[in-house]
């Protein structure tokens, strides 16, 4: 991961690699780009990400859809995840560990 790119670009680069049907966390992306204490900044970056970035696949460390208010409509984030085969109950992905993609070990 090139340090020449700005923080947001590095976040987008990792997020674009999250496989279909998988999810990761803000903190996991932060660690993968060498900014372990910047999970909140990852969230800020994803809030206004380009359309080709699957921001719906990034959740908090417990699998909660904390960013859903930044998607158009009330349940778009949940619908996108459910379309990929994930089960959501009370705004939380079920079997989070089973679906978790770790960018640090996958890149």
Task: Summarize the model shown.
The protein is mainly α and 107 residues long. Helix content is 38%, strand content 7%.
Explain what this protein looks like in three dimensions:
The chain has 107 residues and is mainly alpha-helical. It has helices at 7-15, 26-32, 39-47, 76-83, 96-99, 103-106, and strands at 24-25, 58-59, 88-89, 92-93. It has a single domain, classed as Orthogonal Bundle (Arc Repressor Mutant, subunit A), CATH 1.10.10. The strands form 2 sheets. A two-stranded parallel ribbon has the order 1-2. A two-stranded antiparallel ribbon has the order 3-4. A hairpin with a 2-residue loop joins β3 (88-89) and β4 (92-93). The longest helix has 9 residues, at 7-15.
Largest sheet: 2 strands, parallel
From the 3D coordinates, which CATH architecture would you assign? Orthogonal Bundle
CATH superfamily: Winged helix-like DNA-binding domain superfamily/Winged helix DNA-binding domain
Number of helices: 6
What strand order characterises the main sheet? 1-2
Write the layout of secondary structure elements.
Layout: H1 7-15, E1 24-25, H2 26-32, H3 39-47, E2 58-59, H4 76-83, E3 88-89, E4 92-93, H5 96-99, H6 103-106
Parallel strand pairs: 1-2
Antiparallel strand pairs: 3-4
Helix pairs in contact: 2-3
């Amino acid at each position: 991961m090139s340090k020449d790119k700005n923080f947001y670009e590095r976040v987008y680069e990792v997020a674009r690699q999250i496989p279909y049907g998988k999810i990761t966390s803000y903190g996991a992306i932060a660690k993968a780009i060498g900014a372990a204490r910047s999970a909140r900044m990852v969230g800020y970056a994803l809030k206004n990400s380009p359309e080709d970035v699957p921001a719906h696949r990034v959740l908090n460390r417990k699998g909660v859809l904390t960013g859903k208010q930044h998607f158009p409509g009330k349940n778009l984030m949940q619908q996108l995840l459910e379309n990929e085969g994930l089960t959501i109950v009370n705004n939380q992905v079920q079997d989070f560990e089973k679906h978790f993609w770790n960018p640090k070990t996958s890149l």
